[in-house]
Amino acid sequence: MIVAKQKPLSELTAMLDGYRNVLAVGCGTCVTVCFAGGVKEVGILASALRMARRLDGQPMSVAETTVQRQCEAEYIAPLAEGLDEFDAILSLGCGVGVQTLAERFPDKRVLPALDTTFMGLPTEQGVWEERCQGCGHCVLDITGGICPVSRCAKQLMNGPCGGSQGGMCEVDSDTPCAWQLIWERLDRQGLADRLLEIQPPRDWSTSRDGGPRRIVRDDLRLPPPEDV
Amino acid sequence: MMDQLLAPAPAAQAPAPARRFKSGSNLERMLAAGHFAVTGEIGPPKNHDADVIRRKAALLQGCVDAANITDNQTAVVRLSSIASGAILVGQGLEPVVQMTCRDRNRLAMQSDLLGAAALGIRNVLCLTGDHQSHGNHPGAKNVHDIDSIQMVRMVKEMRDEGLFQCGEEISGGGPPLLIGAAANPFADPFELRVHRLAKKVAAGANFIQTQLVFDMSRFREYMKRVVDLGLHEKVAILAGVGPLKSAGMARHMRDKVPGMVVPDGYVARMEAAVEGVAAEDKTARREAWRAEGIRICIEQIQELREIEGLRGVHIMAIEWEEAIRPIVEGAGLFPRPAPEA
Fold this sequence. Notes:
The complex is a heterodimer of chains A (228) and B (341).
Chain A lengths: L1 E5 L2 H7 L5 E7 L2 H4 L5 H17 L5 E7 L5 H4 L11 E4 L3 H10 L5 E3 L1 E11 L2 E6 L15 H4 L26 H11 L40
Parallel strand pairs in A: 2-3, 2-4, 4-5
Antiparallel strand pairs in A: 1-6, 6-7
Chain B lengths: L1 H5 L19 H7 L4 E6 L7 H11 L5 E4 L11 H11 L3 E6 L5 H13 L4 E5 L20 H14 L16 E6 L6 H14 L3 E6 L3 H13 L7 E6 L5 H9 L8 H10 L8 H24 L4 E6 L8 H7 L11
Parallel strand pairs in B: 1-2, 1-8, 2-3, 3-4, 4-5, 5-6, 6-7, 7-8
Helix pairs in contact in B: 3-4, 6-7, 9-10, 10-11, 11-12
């Protein structure tokens, strides 16, 4: 899932300075599951913002709604009705949700309430960890199902570096060394010898280095109108 | 499988006329002559004062076969390693320019390697680099376009095949650089450390400088595995040593530095060195600590010389370059012998 966390209230009140009537829009997908932007979080944040503004002597009206999926135009289309009465949309979606709203409603100010952080999973109640950076060329087949691009601070392909000690990363002693994990996993599977192969330099053009990415599936595209 | 990996890669084209030396560097010729090599290390200043480099170089001159120049060590911005290396070349002390994967992508690396060679630099040490979170710009982006093993191979292909990493030919041939890499026998997992060395050798490393050796028994075990695999015949391994400056430094290195193992015995020796010295007498304590640090370092070199497969030592005395000469002399490695012609 996409994991996000709410921005600090002080940052949000500064961002919303001058707005009087705001629509807070949650998302029912990833950010609901990670307790950052679902129905409940929209309600709590809206109340907190109303209270903060009242205390500042600058009352602000905050309406609440949550769509099932903020990252697809058809799910947010119904918001168009009644949007005129709001002077800004505060999105509790991920960065994709914010931008989908902004693209669909280009005349409206759309502001982010969350910091979208990573693609990951919950490892225990209240803890989420990164697992994927969407680099566009998956190497999990050679690294025992553990991603060195997202989990090694240096994105090494022939790791571990010299800072791995006691199974932990040199950057943070609470973070496991990805290459220690990779080695343990492959060793357990009787495949540790594979780590002797030198992995060549990667082609990062599939990652963000190649510019904004796009997938086109001709088999799924609709024919142009004149061919219909 | 290991043998296959360690076999030299087949040349992509007709081999270039055989050169006697890969780089002709002093370090390469010392190793070729079979001498026990001694390298040192210079940390450039955090400003543009070339005299700092010259002063440190003068302290190492005649004591070492080549001097490493660190590349923004511990992720702190310093005078460039290549610029420092060029200053050393001018002074007649051979540099080993360190280059990390943290700050440069493959374009910048290759460009700088060509520049280094043009300035008369003949040795490069290929490093991953400490993470920037340890340095003075923790909010910086890191690069890690390629890793240190890929870098070793890239430099080898530039030098031996005259090819850029993209496969394009380098007109006029590749830069004559002796390729070094680092090894940390004290990082984990231990079982993987010798394999990682084997990969660096397979990638084309000519020499290896290790992390500071304090845990002699672990290092002996490491070298035994190295010798069992025959890696010592394919690469010249120089063991890293460095004098402790104080008991506090010994404790810090034992407790705080990632990838470093300092046995308690050395900490105890450093603590004992100032027994009976008044706590207020800072100068006397400093001198007592430093004398003991140098003594320990000399003993370590003597122990290391007995280990099969070792070809030299790399003495790291950053911000204490004055210690190099007494260490080299005390270890019976001074004066330095003549390199192979």
